[in-house]
Amino acid sequence: MMRVVIVDDEELARRGVRARLEQIGDVNIVAECKNGREAIDAIRRMTPDLVFLDVQMPGKSGFDVIEAIGWDKFPQVIFVTAHDRFAIRAFEVNALDYLLKPIDEERFDLALRRARESFFRKQESDLGRRLGAVLKEVSADKSNVAQAFTDRIVIRSGGRVVFVKVSEIDWVEAAGDYVTLHSGKKSWLQRETISDMEKKLEPSGFRRIHRSTVVNLERISEMRALDNGEYRVLLRDGTELKLSRNFRRALQSLIEGR
Fold it and tell me: How many helices (DSSP H) and strands (DSSP E) are in the chain?
């Protein structure tokens, strides 16, 4: 969940931001602060992912808070203020967005959507770096750990990274520049061509049986000949696929009983 800190000297303003965020399931409000001093302490302790930061506050301003934490260490920030004269400076410090009071509902939703997208990109980037570090550490011993990564398909979707075992995939179908991986009742969409997926899966016992279909040979339970020289391929779970004549060679040994 995205961890959020709300900073505003006006209680009503904090309450408004909090009410909007509480309607969203993937946001965790970890602190509320009424001045810059409290904000600096909370941000250092809670290390949030996003800060809704009022510009004008007694004592330290929102910009003072950022300077105290450090420009390079500060989390994503959405400025909230009643005056638009601070907008240029807000974006000079790489603010994610800038909201004017009273906050417009659509503008708030847009700002939060930007924050989510930035948060998910950072998560995926961090995960990629961690996986890269692991592979680098075990490069001297490729026999076991490297295999753990090559027998899985990594799928990135909506901020999540899913690892699907190749052995659990039943079949794959093309959908334009994407493919859908089927495993029992589950399916995942991956941005990859069917040809690239075929090359990736072929060493694990998969074969292309149609211009838009790759199948796990272990899942085939029956094949039925059709009048036009093609075959209907039945999988163990009841799924029916078509073996076209152009790809008949892929299953020739099964057809001939060899």
Answer: 8, 15
